[in-house]
Amino acid sequence: MNHDANIYGLTYTQLEDFLIAAGEKKTKAPFIFQSLYRTQISSFMDVADINQRLKTQLAETFSMTLPQLIRQTAAADTVKFLFALPNTDSDKQDHLIEAVLMKQNYGSSLCISTQVGCNMACAFCQSGRFKKVHNLTAAELVSQMIAVQKLTDCTIQNVVLMGIGEPFDNYDNIMQFLEIIMHPHGLAIGKNHITVSTCGIAPKINDYAMHPQHGLLAISLHAPDDTTRSRLMPINRRYPVTELMNTAREYIRITGKKVMLEYIMLHEVNDTPEQAQLLADLIGKDKFHVNLIPYNATENFGFQPSSRARILAFYDVLKKNNITVTMRREFGASVNAACGQLRADYEHSIQQ
Ligand code: SAH
Question: How far is ligand 1, taken at its centre, from the CA of residue 125, in Å?
């Protein structure tokens, strides 16, 4: 069985297998999933409608470990969490990750981390300053959601994989996580309420399109040409813009879904009207949605956020070319919730 001993890493099918191996009926699985994910029990003794022997067996086999809250900060409709994961790896560093809850009028969204650190080394991103030391397991991914729901008493409707890390550099665990959170007896998060964001690992986009548990896809594009994109994102040297866009088109053809292109607005780097026109030409009539993201300035990178006027001019060019485009509200800016900022802040403060 491919699961760790934390119950939150178990898929529904793996739970059924466990029950059969334990000499129980697999019809107990719905009670256990519902108790874990709907009632959000904290002890196996509280699982509804199962006998004492099975409760004891669950408790002896599995843990219900949640990440430990280090810091929680709230501003308006955003709550950010800094968590420490129990570190079972040989390195003795703290495994710090971030999650950000955004309360929107169409339901709450949780942005979660997928790795401790990140190897993608995007030039503007704080997360990449800490090399990857750990891929989050399915249990660690699911337990971020449970921890936030328990801490805030809110029900998460949307999940975005846009926290620290590159989800497609941790592909198998992400797919197992999606299977667990989509299960109708559990959290029952719908396909269209999950967004996986990638820096553009093209072969994994192909796999994701074919995977039964795929949700929506967002690609961090950030530049329409190879020169600019390779400067911002080293991954572009492996999978250049044309190849990436062709892969994204194939994803659209297979799934019938729109792909979101994320585009951080960096002053005089990627925000000229000429670059907007290039982007429009790259998209053509295909089903892409461009999301223009104000840059959350981070220390020492030498990038400046584009002015509002430059963002609007860029937006206008896309609109004139009939591209679907939105401007992201600056969610999280006041709580330093851009990718990796929270952890960086914390490490900075404990070093002082
Ligand atoms: N590795 C994945 C997901 C994590 S990053 C990816 O690259 O998509 C999530 C998003 O936040 C990406 O679009 C990333 O480029 C963006 N981001 C990183 N640092 C940022 C900053 N300082 N301000 C605004 N957005 C940022």
Answer: 7
